[in-house]
Write a structure and sequence with these properties.
Layout (H helix, E strand, L loop, with lengths): L3 E11 L2 E8 L4 E6 L9 H4 L11 E5 L1 E4 L8 E4 L6 E5 L28 E3 L10 E4 L3 E9 L7 E10 L2 E6 L3 H8 L4 E4 L5 E11 L2 E11 L1
Parallel strand pairs: 3-6
Antiparallel strand pairs: 1-2, 1-4, 2-3, 4-7, 5-6, 8-15, 9-14, 10-11, 10-13, 11-12, 14-15
Length: 222
């Protein structure tokens, strides 16, 4: 296949690598480059540009791919051709509003984990949704830094995003490494963000114990 050109809207932490996703600008179609690994993450070597730099949010990237590799839960996946470098074509400079999605909700509501709110869906609900990633603008947004897992003897500081979309509240884990680094280096607490120029990429992962979990893959400021 010919390389696919996307604007990078997600560059999130996943297992030992990253989950990269973006949109073809001309069609607004989502693409998620994946590897042949079981969990499909992209390694550092696979995503590195020829000059040694790493992809960043809003980079316009030419990604060499072998084939469309959809799964039941992630139909946007394309298998990368790891024989070739990714190429940075430029930086996206147009208005981010043109890339927004407008789903009624974020993969349903009413299913919450112990620490989250509307943060998962039963595995069988995947057929109701044609996309597993959205680019949205929140109505309210807070970043929560707190210790979780003490009751299970696994206490660790975690970052979650509490936000409202289409008048529904969500509390999702954050996998954007830049946001994680910023807030883990500070104090615990609840931090309200101005939403005027803030956009979010949210995604739903592969099944785990009967559920697909949702997460905040990136925060982008226009």
């Amino acid at each position: 296949m010919d390389p696919i050109k996307i604007v990078c809207l997600a560059n999130s932490r996943k297992i030992s690598g990253r989950c990269i996703a973006g949109k073809i600008i001309e069609s607004n179609k989502w693409i998620r480059p994946v590897s042949n690994r079981e969990s499909e993450e992209i390694s550092e070597e696979e995503r590195r540009y020829e000059n040694g730099e790493m992809p960043k949010l809003l980079d316009i990237i030419s990604v060499p791919v072998k084939d469309h590799k959809p799964t039941q839960h992630q139909k946007e996946n394309y298998l990368i051709d790891d024989r070739y470098y990714w190429t940075k074509i430029g930086q996206y400079a147009d208005r981010l509003e043109s890339l927004l999605d407008s789903p009624e909700d974020l993969w349903g509501t009413g299913f919450s984990s112990y620490q989250g709110t509307n943060d998962r869906m039963p595995e069988g609900m995947h057929a109701e949704y044609s996309e597993s990633v959205y680019f949205i603008k929140p109505q309210v947004l807070k970043i929560i830094v707190r210790i979780e897992g003490e009751e299970f003897d696994d206490a660790k500081r975690k970052i979650r995003a509490q936000f409202t979309y289409n008048n529904t509240e969500y509390l999702l884990p954050v996998t954007d490494p830049v946001v994680e680094s910023k807030y883990l280096s500070g104090n615990d607490g609840c931090f309200t963000l101005s939403i005027e120029n803030i956009y979010m990429c949210v995604s739903v992962g592969l099944p785990y114990n009967g559920y697909c979990y949702k997460f905040l893959a990136s925060l982008i400021e226009d």
